[in-house]
Each structure stands twice: as structure tokens, then as C-alpha cells.
Design goal:
With 142 residues, the chain is mostly loops. It contains two helices and five strands. Strands 2-1-3 form a three-stranded antiparallel beta sheet, with no helix packed on it. Strands 4-5 form a two-stranded antiparallel ribbon. β4 (126-127) and β5 (133-134) form a beta hairpin.
Length: 142
């Protein structure tokens, strides 16, 4: 830009200002339509792998239904373990079988560690199940 010269729009800096450069709008639209008709869509990605659906939900006693919604932080994907037979409409691919531990039956004959007397004071030493010696302060002893 030079002082005293009329301002030019940005298009005039790059393109010639003569009208012969611009194509005829009717011809341009016809060429664009024919070109668009010749375009073909790309084939989609092959999905030869089937969706994995476990067969266990049909026979298991408990299932975890997936909760497809926006979750809070640290919220699990699946909701609790529900007993089979509860009426609820859920898609089979949103269900995960629940493999629950068998209930532990405690034996009536548990192993107890005997309290052995302390060598210095003669007081019994308290031992935990893991075998650690626990020294309690005297103020907690009755």
C-alpha cells in the first residue's frame, strides 16, 4: 500500500480484477453436480469379528447389568449383583455374569493361640491370629 493510492480489497491483491477469470456460475454448478455424482462412498471398516456375548448369563444365578449412562467419578460400570429371576428388561449384551465366592462355613474347632506368660513379668502375652505379639499398655488392662 502506498500513500495516496485508493485502497484495494484483499481479493484484488491475489486475483486479477477482470471478469473473464471467473467461470460462468451455471457451468460451474453443472460441473460440480456431475463431479459429486461420480464420487463413491468408501467402504466401511470390515466388521467380521462378532460381538462377544458370554453364554453364562442364561444359566448363572446372579448377573451384573451394565449402567449405560454418564457416571460419577469412580462409579463402577456395572450395577450390583442381581439374582436371576428378577424381572427387568435388559439387553443380553449389557449383562455380565457374576461369579460369586461360595459362602465360607467356619469350623467350630478354630485354632486358638495360648497365652504364654511373659518371661520378665510373668504376665500372659497376647498373640494375634497372624502370630504377632501385642503389648497393651497397663492402663488398658483390667
Amino acid at each position: 500500500m502506498v500513500f495516496g493510492v485508493p485502497l484495494k480489497p484483499p481479493g484484488q491483491f491475489l486475483f486479477p480484477s477482470d471478469k473473464s477469470f471467473w467461470p460462468n456460475p451455471v457451468n460451474y454448478v453443472e460441473r460440480l453436480c456431475s463431479h459429486m455424482q461420480n464420487l463413491q462412498a468408501l467402504p466401511t471398516r470390515p466388521t467380521s469379528n462378532p460381538i462377544f456375548i458370554p453364554t453364562d448369563p442364561k444359566t448363572c444365578s446372579h448377573v451384573f447389568p451394565r449402567h449405560d449412562a454418564v457416571r460419577n467419578p469412580l462409579q463402577p460400570i456395572y450395577d450390583g449383583s442381581f439374582k436371576n429371576g428378577r424381572e427387568s428388561v435388559v439387553s443380553i449384551d449389557c449383562v455380565k455374569p457374576a461369579y460369586l465366592n461360595k459362602p465360607v462355613i467356619e469350623n467350630s474347632a478354630s485354632v486358638f493361640y495360648p497365652k504364654s506368660p511373659d518371661k520378665e513379668t510373668g504376665k500372659p502375652i497376647v498373640v494375634t491370629r497372624s502370630g504377632r505379639h501385642v503389648p497393651f499398655p497397663d492402663r488398658y488392662k483390667f
